[in-house]
Design a protein that fits this description.
single chain, about 450 residues, mainly alpha, 21 helices, globular, disordered N terminus
């Protein structure tokens, strides 16, 4: 903690005129190293972080501290979840449980309706979960649906990602919206209702509708991750209800925690237990343990087969873990230079519409730091003094405008960018054409819908 505080004190010594060139140079270096020189993204992100610190004038010792702090916190947070999600996903694949879900989805959906079904699945899984957790849980299903249906991985995957991302940015009980609700003193119930109202058409536009075009721009086969063992398709499978219940177990635990935080008094036994069980790490750990019995046992896998499945789940994600953690390090380096505060100061007194201003502040900080959460927290703090003259509904719309802005154009300084890129097996350019543009569509669509609701409210 002390190192993080030391790193955060550094911006006072940095010339503001060097921050934007430093951020742009760091991002350009990363893209150039990866795309032209074919340097591994882990090394590129590390070098880009050092370049940002050097150009901004941040002492190199503080730059390294910022990078390692961001790397460590991302590895500790997202990294452990990716590892547990990979274990869960491999068990889901090897037991035939993923095939059972896929056969049910594909069997009951036409090729035309399949992307819509995937969007609904993504939104359902994403409602109580962090984006990264929902992604690792959905990956086996996305890959198998693409293989079994014959549709493009992008055609199937983008709708699921849209469902996850929209819920992450716009709908409580996600941490981002909850932080904004608390900072702006918005009404939780009204914000939740308006969030769902904005989220549904946003998912439809950025998911199945956008995926049609994205699949024409980028056509890639599903990666070999989460492949079941040979002969697994013909082997005994766990039933669909058991498989679905196992997949939804971490969802239910996290939803229980979110509801307890809202409705249960602090310190009560119910809240204490649900807070523990609903912690992402605990929820996924329990899901893996339960899956060993429900999925492994349901497929008649012995202890040796289950242990082999868990062991084989980790090597394929080693590169993903390093890249995602390095992305977190690069993001932290940008944050600790103070670029977010600089951008916020530029637009604070601009005289724009409050909703448009909120979206713009979140967009600029998101582009600069790569963090939707930092964008939400910073924008909420800046806009808090402006809510005095706003009605209850308008304050809730302000929360949604900030949430929409915080999702704008994910790129190389966002750990989520690298997570999607590596899982989907895309190049940087392909990921920008699909994932980054999808995030932009979500952000702009969300803003438009918020402004339209403002006319009514």
């Amino acid at each position: 903690m002390s190192s993080a505080l030391i790193a955060f004190a550094a911006p006072a010594e940095i010339s503001p005129g060097r921050l934007i060139p430093a951020a742009l140079a760091g991002i350009a270096l990363i893209v150039l190293l990866i795309t032209y020189f074919k340097v591994h993204p882990f090394l590129s992100l590390t070098l880009g972080s050092l370049a940002v610190g050097a150009i901004a004038g941040l002492p190199m010792a503080d730059t390294i501290t910022s990078f390692t702090t961001g790397f460590g916190s991302t590895a500790a947070g997202v990294g452990t979840l990716i590892a547990l999600g990979a274990m869960f996903g491999k068990l889901l694949a090897d037991s035939g449980g993923a095939d059972e879900i896929v056969d049910t989805i594909v069997g009951r959906s036409s090729p035309r309706s399949l992307p819509w079904a995937m969007a609904a699945v993504g939104a359902l899984i994403g409602l109580p979960m962090f984006f990264e957790i929902g992604l690792v849980l959905l990956m086996p299903v996305i890959f198998l649906v693409a293989r079994r249906s014959g549709l493009s991985l992008v055609r199937v995957g983008i709708p699921a990602l849209a469902g996850l991302s929209v819920m992450h940015g716009l709908v409580p009980p996600h941490p981002g919206p909850l932080v904004a609700i608390d900072a702006l003193k918005a009404d939780l119930g009204i914000t939740l209702a308006l969030g769902v109202l904005v989220a549904i058409p946003t998912v439809a536009i950025a998911g199945p509708l956008f995926a049609k075009y994205a699949a024409r721009w980028v056509d890639v086969p599903p990666p070999e991750l989460f492949e079941a063992e040979p002969g697994a398709e013909d082997a005994r499978r766990p039933s669909f209800p058991v498989t679905l219940a196992t997949v939804l177990l971490p969802v239910a635990l996290m939803m229980g925690k979110a509801l307890a935080d809202i409705f249960a008094a602090e310190g009560t036994a119910v809240r204490t237990v649900l807070d523990f069980l609903g912690t992402p790490l605990v929820a996924l750990l329990l899901a893996v343990i339960v899956a060993m019995f429900t999925l492994g046992g349901g497929a008649a896998m012995d202890r040796k087969a289950i242990a082999k499945s868990l062991e084989q789940s980790l090597p394929p994600i080693a590169g993903i873990l390093l890249i995602v953690a390095a992305g977190g390090g690069f993001k932290q380096t940008l944050i600790d230079t103070g670029i977010g505060g600089l951008i916020a100061g530029w637009v604070e007194d601009s005289g724009l519409s409050v909703l448009l201003l909120a979206w713009l502040v979140a967009v600029l900080i998101r582009l600069a730091t790569g963090s939707a959460t930092v964008a939400t927290v910073t924008a909420s703090g800046i806009l808090a003094p402006l809510v005095v003259n706003l009605g209850t509904g308008e304050v809730s719309l302000l929360v949604l405008a900030i949430g929409a802005g915080s999702l704008f154009f994910s790129h190389v300084n966002d750990a989520g960018f690298w997570l999607v890129k590596e899982y989907f097996g895309l190049t940087v350019g392909q990921n920008i054409k699909t994932w980054s543009v999808m995030e932009t569509v979500i952000s702009v669509t969300g803003l438009v819908l918020v402004l339209l609701l403002d006319l009514v409210i």
